[in-house]
Request: fold
Amino acid sequence: MKMFSVSHKTVFVVDHCPYMSESSRQQVECDVLTKTRAQGVIPLAPVSKSLWTCAVECSMEYCRILYDIYPKDKLVNYIVSDSEFHILNTWKREEQGTHELMSGLASVGPPNPHEDPECCSILHGLFAAVESLCIITELQHERRAALMDTAERVANRGRIICLTNAKSDTSVRMLEDYVQETILEQNKVAASSDRRMAIQQCELVLLHIYPQGEDTLVSDRPKKEISPLLTSEVHSVRAGRHLATKLNILVQQHFDLASTTITNIPMKEEQHANTSANYDVELLHHKDAHLEFIKSGDLHMAGTSTRENTLKETVTLKWCTPRTNSIGGNELHYCTGAYRISPTDVNSRPSSCLTNFLLNGRSVLLEQPRKSGSKVISHMLSSHGGEIFLHVLNSNRSTLEDPPSISEGCGGRVTDYRITDFGEFMRENRLTPVSEYFIDSFEKLPVERAKAQLERHTRYWPMIISQTTIFNMQAVVPLANLIVKETLTEEDVLTCQKTVYNLVDMERKNDPLPISTVGSRGKGPKRDEQYRIMWNELETLVKTHAAASDRHQRVLDCITACRSKPPEEEERKKRGRKREDREDRAEKNGSKETDDKGWQDSERLKGLIDKEDQESEVIKDSPDSPEPLNKKPRLSTEEVQPPERAKGPVSLLTMWTNRITVANSRKHQEFVGRASSVNNKFELYQHLKDENGMDVHENGKASR
Amino acid sequence: MPTLVLMDVSLSMTRPVSLDGSEEFQRKNLAVHGLNMLFEHMASNYRLEFTALMAFSSLWELLVSFTRDYNALQEALSNLEDYDKTCIESALQGVSNVVQQEWGSACPCQVVLVTDGSLGIGKGSLRHSLQTMKHRGDDKKFPLPFPFPTKLYIMCVANADELQMTDAMDNLEELLHLSGGDGQIFTIEGPLCMKGVQAMFGRLIDYAYSPFHAVLHCGNLSSDVQVFPRPEPVVVDDEVEPMPRAVSTDLEIVGFIEIADISSPPVISRHLVLPIAVNKEVDEVGTGATDELEEEPSASQMAGKNPNFCVLLHGSLKVEGMVALVQLGPEWYGMLYSQADSKKKSNLMMSLFDPGSGPLPWLGNISHLGPISEAAENPYGEDDSKSPFPVQPQVKRSYAQNVTVWIKASGLQTDVQKILRNARKLPDKTQTFYKELNRLRKAALAFGFSELLKVVADLLERECTMLPDSAHPDAAFQLSHAAQQLKLASTGESQHADFDHNIVPMHTDFSS
Reply:
């Protein structure tokens, strides 16, 4: 069904003239007496519905089914016609629903039998119906706005269902002509309005209702084209049961519905709770749920039965009692369609038993009865959020059967994927509906923000265990979890810094690291090398986030400030070895000792720098090391000041930078330009001017 | 999407192709050469496709049923025999039966019809079939369109000029039109020769059998993948949006959802997502690019040892019982999940949802799904005991809200009985009594059924007179109060017949 087919807009026009207050002559016994109390009581006379009541309740049933199956964008406008028209609702989405219509109907009340029949006419209602069809719906408006230059693709079609009591075939023709004229007239009006659209196609369905026991004065007529704009069909129906059946058939035709009867539903008997009888329940749904049957010509085999004057067709599917433990179900069925359902007999006991069972979260598989013995599960009934859907399950051979296993393809041989960590990552990146209220049209859509979060979380994400150290360390977890956040609080920064200090502490204690030994023989890298790898990795992780905010940057600064520096690392290496020496003395020899000593000396020469948090160990391990300059940690960039402006003691970073600069400068001769620059500027190609006194550009070639 | 090759083995296919100087070929040889080329391509680039081979003349025969064994197909091609005249209609009937028997009627299928453009003579010829198809009964309907979605490729071992001299081209075009219009007619450009037929099959390969390569992204993690079978473009509404939507070659994961929350969603197609080694050559779809997957064993072994994001994702999805929501294009989504074929084999699979932002009502608008970190409190609860799904619709469906329908007499009787049953248990059941009473009152007012209100009022009054002596005195008060209120409502006067008004229990006090 196209988005803007005639089914997008349905107008009900119901006759409210005095004649409609006549009895339908279908009697309902209200006073059903239970046997025990029947003695001596005269039952009350049965009631009978008026033509109006019949028309209203059958049209409401049509709407009930429609709203159950198409809760959105299949719209109804309800109009009542007597001496004038009464429009009970508009196309607005919030005015769609049986409760809204019932409320409107109650305010109109039953027709007044004493009103002057001459003043009353269905024509008032038909006029209002045509006018209403011209009025643009929210969906039409949205799509027109979205399509911009191709807005003409949004069509305006509609259907008018008119329930009335016509006098004769001639008066029916008169109604059709009137609708045709009104359309032409209203289309002209619509042309000059933004809120209206000309009607491109209108389907008029006239239902002539007459009381039981009378002969009809109007003959049935199948759909015929009155004009390119208008088709019309006439149904002459007796009020009561027949009208209900007719409207049930019409709603199926109009909205592409089909019927499925679930058979063999076991249900506890009201009287005998320990026995159960089997019941059938008929459901309506979109006919595509039967597509496979229709195409394969299996419709009859699937147990189509014809009931009620051979008008009704239904496909029978057998209930398969669900396994008791599979509530909700963590199984992903291959489902090719899911269609909303509406029970035909909504408040009958079998129907409500079935729907309540499903609404409580159970799913039921349905079996297609076949002539041959094989059992084929073709459908499943399941509810989602208080709505019941008929799922179509694929029962054919799959074209994807026997695929190569993922372990045979790229990356299939790798065995140490961080499966658990990625599982955790997936849980953190689960989604949740964001209420319309919080969606700002200027901001990114929630789904874009979800993608942005994935981007942040994966800036540094090694896929295998042997590729990472930090993600194998519990100690890093607090920092790793926080640093990926879009914004950090002061508290977060503090937590990150604590994590770093903790690592420094670990390093000082020479705690072992979970470094993978895959691919390396023996013990793997030395411990200080391990720490170097760990710090590098941590720095890589944090660097990818440093640009996000000052606070992120401060975490990075903390790491750069705290981690061991290469020369110190050498020293550390030495110390580490010393310790190892102590641990296994036998293996070490003197030559290494002297080597180490050399390092130690050069280290001492280089300056009075050390890290404040090495204190105790430094002193203990190598008494030659100087006392740290600062006891207080200095971690953030704010404290890094250019040396000339620094008044107090110089910061660690500054000292470090200076030392590196000095060290570097010794390794090469200074550029002439930089050495003789004025304010760090030096004019290039001075010699050209000196030699020729000419402009460089003009004489570039000549000078060569 | 399985392929069925329908090969013409009528006598006309044995017509020689005159080539100056060189060896003499029959048209059949050319056709077989082209098909061999197609099968070779598929064996290396499209090897998961199921293909069947059927030969036809006035009769048809299924030579190789649906298989991935391309050697068997090539073997069968080399053993073709020559038969009598061309009869396309019966062959198509055969196709219809074979495909439906194997795949049912919902699975889309590609049919490659190889012929020489001489479409038979007299009864059974395509011309005859097309002329008579409108005058037949239901039992002898023309087999096209097939019940399953079809792509029909007609490979003519003939050039266009030759076909246009007769009405062959017109007939073939009509055939394509009848099949649903999805497909193409290919002819040989220039003289009939090996090169010409290679070029023609090359065009078919480019059109229908080039592998779909994409990049699967999850933030900065990514993997090159082949999506098999190729996702086909989808038309949402041919009026509002006639341009088909194609799946993007960048598949972006947007987040993750539990399997129980996504709960067997309807999908339009399913595809394997196979990680592939990064290609050295830029040319992906060219006719010549045949050996992407047939690299030297050492290279493929290398690929097996390099960590691949797909394998990681698959492993975690499987362990956690989750799916990844993946964006396929603007307002188009799908899901990635682990699909187990058997206990040992499992795969990364992608299912496509209907295009649009709200394909699954129970997830709401997918574009409006955001990260849980932005929610005020974790919607899954601290211990994963809750879930924000399913999304509840704003209005309950009729079956979930105790609606009143009196179309069948039994519906009305049940409702009246319910009131009476509760009336007899007053004052214990006062609340239920009034609840049922008000429900009936509302419906009666909406349906303009004032007579019912009067009858029920009478019934209540009668109940009142029949109260046993042991009854609580309040029962009588409530019954006559309710009866009186119903009578007032039945007058239709606006002050008593307001739809939203509820009859409230009479205030009585028997405590003193």
